[in-house]
Amino acid sequence: MKRARIFHRGRDCWADVIEGDTVLRLGDGTLVPIDEAQWLPPVTPGAACYALGLNYADHNKELGFAPKLATPLIFMKGGNCFVGHNGASPRPADGNQMHPECELVAIIGTPARDVPVEQALSHVSGYTVANDYAIREYLENYYRPNARVKNRDATTPIGPWIVDAADLADPQSLSLRTSVNGVTVQDGTTADMILDVAGLVSYLSSVTTLMPGDMILTGTPQGVHFCAPGDEVVCEIEGVGRLVNTLVPA
Amino acid sequence: MNFSGSIYGVVLNDTVERARLADAFGSEPYRAPPKAPVVYMKPASSVARQALRVPAGGLVAAPTLALLFARDACRVDEATALRCLGAVCLAIDASIPADSYYRPAVAQKNGDDTLWLGQAAAPVLPDAIVLEIDGAQALHFPLSRLSRSPAQLVADLSQFMTLRAGDLLMIGLPGDAPVIAPGTHIGVRGGALPAISIEAEGATT
Q1: In sequence order, what are the beta bridge partners of A33?
Q2: Which residue of B has its CA nearest to A71?
Q3: Average per-residue pLDDT in chain A?
């Protein structure tokens, strides 16, 4: 099953994605054709959102960092960041080094505290796709990657929907691809994560209690491509979804 | 204090701490002083309900002020920034001691029951925040010590991130906040705001 969050007749609703991804069914049975959907981020309000930096060895090499950090590089993101499928993200006039980052997102289903790796995936209820844009001009060496890079309004497209974890055989064998105006700029696999989904859930659960709806953006593979206003950026993860975003001048 | 959104805070907003670190700011790994406010976040799981939970190694207990937004603050200026507030409260933000600001401090700051929020009141800012440990004054933190005033901080953050209705923002942590041990009684006072009086209990993990 897939679940999406849409804006419909004046309010936001969760909906099941049915009929071969052509129709959305609201809780009250209302059917909405998928091409009429106004997509919202499939995010539970108030949920904690964790994101990984430098969690793919090839990307670390590309950026000049060690293949594996001593401790995982994790930061948080606020609710202001997210924008739904087919949405627009502001591309600042001075953000010439703005690049997309296609990431598998794990969504927590049950409270997780001090969970061993072997049991960690039982706390994951679903997966979605995020594009965690970065703007390298704004990097500063304080809590890097700092908020001006990673916590900007509407610069984290996410969706279109959440796929149930049960429908994904192995989260560590999925291809990830980003294209800009139809040209592939990232082409990786979740097999190359340094700390895999189970490892991330286990690690974070040693720090905090992960709660239902909390999200982990698991990092991005290599392929730094700087984008321009007007670019159409598509992030696709095999078996999860295809997330479309357009950059608008800001 | 009711919040429904994200919990933000800033570090390095204390002029005394900034002066102490001035040389370090020019060295590795920082290379330059911070320009934008240095933001961290805390999850809802960190909000304590009965007591702060402090592991055996202790936590840095930083008294601060939390702003609750009633309206979105998006690209506001300093003169109008505080009109977006609906309430404020005193707060204690407890963290595992760290000696670096280079990487995000999730492992140090996100522990369960490490953030205590006092009772909310109308947004009238106190002149100073006082921390008491076991009844004795441990720290006097005048807001004049802030590098960016609350209004300036909200204005600067709002240039790139909207502080949304329902979000919380902690305005800065004193760089000389003490380390507290389990079994400590903690009090925080500030102006006419409802005071905080809580226990720091041992944490099992």
Answers
A1: A23
A2: B107
A3: 96
- CATH code linked to domain A1-40: 2.30.30
Between CA A24 and CA A3 the distance in angstroms is: 9
> Under a CB-based contact definition with an 8 Å cutoff, are residues B198 and B119 in contact?
no
CA atoms B155, B156, B161, B166: torsion sign: negative
Residue A80: list chain B partners with CB under 8 A: 6, 161-164
Which DSSP string corresponds to B163-198? Answer: B-TT-EEE----TTPPEE-TT-EEEEE-TTSPPEEE
The fold for domain A41-249 equals: Fumarylacetoacetate hydrolase; domain 2 (3.90.850)
Nearest to B41 among A78, A142, A211 (CB): A78
CB pairs under 8 A between A and B: 116
pLDDT digits (tens, 9 = 90+) for A28-54: 999 999 999 999 999 998 999 999 999
Is the whole-model pTM more than 0.90?
yes
CB contact under 8 A, A151 and B103: no
List the Cα angle B143/B145/B150 in 5-degree steps.
45
